[in-house]
Amino acid sequence: MPKIVPIAMFAAAALPAAAHAQAYSCSIPSTLPRPHPELPSASEPQRIVPIGGYTLAISWAPEYCQNNGREPGARLECGGGNRFGFTLHGLWPDGIGKAWPQYCKAAALLPQPVIAAHLCANPSVQLTQHEWAKHGTCTADSPAQFLARSRQLYARLSYPDMDALSRRRDLTVGAFAAALAEANPGLDPDMMRINVNRRGWLTEVWLCLDTQYRYRRCPAFESGAAAGTRLKIWRGDGGVYRSAAGRRRY
Known about the structure:
Number of strands: 8
Radius of gyration: 18 Å
Shape: globular
Helix content: 10-25%
């Protein structure tokens, strides 16, 4: 049974407006489960290599909830009246080549206020712990700095009309990438990777960044779905996941 820690005293104050970029309805419960440690393993070993750039990964919540909504760890994202469009998966340091750094140093459990401040961007206590342990420990940031940077990069994004795109029968990966690029000056289709599942539904978008967190062309060895791939977008409950109002870049 996970330990439950009350957060009612600080949850509201800890949530900056920028964290709500795609949280159409986000309510943080008065208590949160305590995360368990995230450690390297035989399949996910510690790897310390120089950082050559970053990937900002965002997930399409309606599709995630369609397939995982009954999982205990998905309750915040997929239940309790919450509604999300794109959520923040994480900010991942990339290497110079194909290998990337991970689990660079031991990671203590994140303080509850730090987790609470992140949950309307990444609505999972355990995933937040995982992102810090696997990726954040390879940066020079503190946990609060790393997660705040991740939220800021996520919050600067604007989105096309996802409801309208989801109704297009001729939508392709290339057309979606062009629409996302058009909504974000400085972001080009070759600076992102669009990921779909085996049935052709949108799951995630990976945005390529340089070491100064500016958009850059993705390395040739990083591949997503081909531009001509037919793309479907799950709208969720009656199409309520329409695109949020456009946000200015900063």
